[in-house]
From TrEMBL, chains A, B:
<dbReference type="InterPro" id="IPR004111">
    <property type="entry name" value="Repressor_TetR_C"/>
</dbReference>
<dbReference type="InterPro" id="IPR036271">
    <property type="entry name" value="Tet_transcr_reg_TetR-rel_C_sf"/>
</dbReference>
<keyword id="KW-0678">Repressor</keyword>
<dbReference type="Pfam" id="PF00440">
    <property type="entry name" value="TetR_N"/>
</dbReference>
<dbReference type="InterPro" id="IPR050109">
    <property type="entry name" value="HTH-type_TetR-like_transc_reg"/>
</dbReference>
<keyword id="KW-0238">DNA-binding</keyword>
<dbReference type="Pfam" id="PF02909">
    <property type="entry name" value="TetR_C_1"/>
</dbReference>
<protein>
    <submittedName>
        <fullName>TetR/AcrR family transcriptional regulator</fullName>
    </submittedName>
</protein>
<keyword id="KW-0804">Transcription</keyword>
<dbReference type="InterPro" id="IPR023772">
    <property type="entry name" value="DNA-bd_HTH_TetR-type_CS"/>
</dbReference>
<keyword id="KW-0805">Transcription regulation</keyword>
<dbReference type="InterPro" id="IPR001647">
    <property type="entry name" value="HTH_TetR"/>
</dbReference>
<dbReference type="InterPro" id="IPR009057">
    <property type="entry name" value="Homeodomain-like_sf"/>
</dbReference>
<dbReference type="InterPro" id="IPR003012">
    <property type="entry name" value="Tet_transcr_reg_TetR"/>
</dbReference>
<feature type="domain" description="HTH tetR-type">
    <location>
        <begin position="8"/>
        <end position="68"/>
    </location>
</feature>
<feature type="DNA-binding region" description="H-T-H motif">
    <location>
        <begin position="31"/>
        <end position="50"/>
    </location>
</feature>
DNA sequence: ACCTGAACACCGTTCAAGT
DNA sequence: ACCTGAACACCGTTCAAGT
């Protein structure tokens, strides 16, 4: 076959197929040979479009970041900083829980991913505009990211096994019914996220009062 | 050689060596062959002590969890719930930043790891004793974990490259000096952690007032 | 019970060769 | 420029064989 007149591959097609494979079968299912087979080419062909497999996964992660709604940070949106932060956090978490298998890649910081940086930029800009000092605005972007990605990655309940015998009450005196948590995994995660988000925003509001009063 | 009179390996020795390798060279450096070589045995020997490589890494992560100070949750410690939560969070984060390379494994939830579960149990127990309703106590354990592991994993600044030319101000209007962040990476992360932790605790204190007043 | 070497079915990546 | 097959240096894991 060698080179066809029209390229068989493009970066977008590789990223889309890799993303679908990650969603369907997890991060471990993505090998260059498997991904290439899914695309109808041979493994090494991918290296004409990406330098490493890791760059492909970074691009998949960035495509998820690109889905995060940022309209609440628009200059003329009208939402106050607190509401904007809340709505953004909910949108961000939704984007991550829609694609849980790529979260481990995404959670490692915005890195060089354009969409990830765009998110950081939007939060920072909106907080400064709302009156936050620049240093605090940087902190807010970072700490919100910690909480949101942490919640998408570290599902508390996911770890528990749906088997009572797995937990000896003598070892974990307060977690005697931990197995129940596995059943209501999503409720716990969503409740913890909502509680944490509100607590975070309440706490920031206190600091905001102190900050703008310089 | 075959079987020696005294076992060459033990689970503890494997975990200790794997942990040292992870710390020194990162998660990717740990292959069964490499780890075995470090231990002076051949690769398959590890399978007499662990079922999979993943179980070894889980054990390494659990050993880090075991270093987290939990004394502030002791029944007779005397610290109020808020101070205990703060001190625990600081200790937890310190344990993680001491061993950053294993954090991706640890961040995926407590799973079946005994020490991870012991941490969850201690937090839950102390919050209930302090007067929090059980459902809220579960949420607090989860959301604190989200924030702490998220902060250890997703260093905001780490991602930025120490090269001004990497960021076109036209793309990220508010991050024009993002390259500066790389220089003060630790300060940003620590500041964001401290700010977020205090905000979280302030916010929880508000909810506590409402909760205990049933 | 606990170690070994050989083997199986994979990996990511490089590279010369083809059009 | 963009694809190919062959090759290199690896993987995790299984298993029969040894003591």
């Amino acid at each position: 076959m060698a080179r066809p007149r029209k390229p068989l591959l493009s970066r977008d097609r590789i990223v889309a197929t890799a993303g679908a494979l990650v969603d369907a079968e997890g991060l471990d299912a993505v090998s260059t040979r498997r991904l290439a087979a899914e695309l109808g080419v041979s493994g090494p062909s991918l290296y004409n479009h990406f330098r490493t497999k890791d760059e492909i996964l970074e691009a998949v992660a960035d495509a998820v970041s690109a889905k995060v709604d940022l309209s609440m940070f628009d200059e003329h949106d009208g939402r106050d900083w607190r509401t904007a932060l809340h709505d953004w956090a909910v949108s961000y978490r939704a984007a991550l829980t829609d694609h849980p298998n790529i979260v481990p890649v995404l959670a490692r910081g915005p890195g060089r991913r354009p969409a990830g940086l765009r998110v950081a930029d939007a939060v920072f800009g909106a907080m400064v505009r709302a009156g936050w000092p620049a240093a605090q605005a940087t902190h807010i972007g970072a700490l919100m990211r910690y909480f949101i990605t942490g919640s998408a990655l570290g599902s508390f309940a996911r770890g528990f096994v749906d088997d009572e015998t797995a937990y000896d009450p003598a070892d974990y005196p307060h977690l005697g019914q931990a197995h129940l948590l596995a059943e209501r995994q999503q409720q716990v995660d969503e409740g913890a996220f909502e509680t944490g988000l509100r607590a975070l925003l309440d706490g920031l509001a206190v600091r905001y009062e102190a900050a703008v009063r310089h």
